[in-house]
Amino acid sequence: MAAKKKASAARAAPQKSKKKKSRAGRIVAVILLTVLLAAVGCGIYYAIETNGFTHFEYVEYNGRRLGTAERGVKLARGKNVFEIKSMKPAAGAGKYTVRIQANSEAKFTFQADGNPQSFAHVGEVTEYFGIEISEDRFEVNIPSDYSVSSVLSEKYGGETVTLPDELPKDTDFWIMSVGLSDGKNILIYFGVSDKPTISINPPHIIF
């Protein structure tokens, strides 16, 4: 009888060992599959963001990377520094362009020397903002006496500009377009405040 029990126990031991090995094998397989999927996902994301693994650049303001269409940015009067960053720091930033135009979403009319004008059709106003470009950064210099009317007055050759009593609320009046060397175009919708801020989601959070 004792011999039968020993034989039964001997047969059971290899079966338990096989089950443990099988369970361990499944766990390892799941881990490897998870890692593989994560790697593939990262590769796809990087390929999309870098237009197929080309030189990848982005714009940073106040220590924060800006998206391709950043809204709610408030620049300060005075100097505002934007940095051009690269995923390949050794390569440095490539050639880029910066221009500023009126935001056509701000739909209102004003008068320039008595002649009615549409803000949506104002177009480019880059010269007013005193942009200085260097290799890996650019500065936007906003005069201390900045106002929407002062920008428009310069745009219209010094003419007297009269704005409506109420301007559109919660609207970024200007759009800065930064064309990067990797083909990406960054749009920065902005206004001017006493201190630089960037709105993030949810929109009531500002830093």
Shape: elongated
The level of helicity is 25-40%
Overall pLDDT score:
81
Total helices: the number is: 2
Structural class from helices and strands? alpha+beta
Strand segment count: 14
| CATH class category of the largest domain | Mainly Beta
Report the major sheet: 6 strands, mixed
Count of distinct structural domains: 2
CATH architectural type of the largest domain = Sandwich
- In whole angstroms, the N-to-C terminal distance is 81 Å
Q: What is the CATH third-level topology name of the largest domain?
A: Immunoglobulin-like
Low-confidence stretches: 50-54, 199-207
Radius of gyration: 30 Å
Order of helices and strands: HEEEEEEEEEHEEEEE
Task: Tell me the fraction of residues in β-strands, as a range.
Answer: 25-35%
Task: Give the strand order of the largest sheet, numbering strands 1, 2, ... along the chain.
Answer: 5-11-12-3-13-14
Summarize the structure.
The protein has 207 residues and is of the alpha+beta class. Helix content is 27%, strand content 34%.
Describe the structure.
The chain is α+β, with helices and mostly antiparallel strands and 207 residues long. The chain folds into two domains: 30 residues; 137 residues, Immunoglobulin-like (Sandwich), CATH 2.60.40. Helix content is 27%, strand content 34%. The chain is built from two helices and 14 strands; from the N terminus they run αβββββββββαβββββ. It has a six-stranded mixed sheet, with no helix packed on it. Strands 2-1-4-9-8 form a five-stranded antiparallel sheet, with no helix packed on it. A three-stranded antiparallel sheet has the order 7-6-10. A hairpin with a 2-residue loop joins strand 1 and strand 2. The longest helix has 48 residues. It is elongated. It starts with a helix and ends with a strand. The C terminus is likely disordered. Keywords: Membrane, Transmembrane, Transmembrane helix.
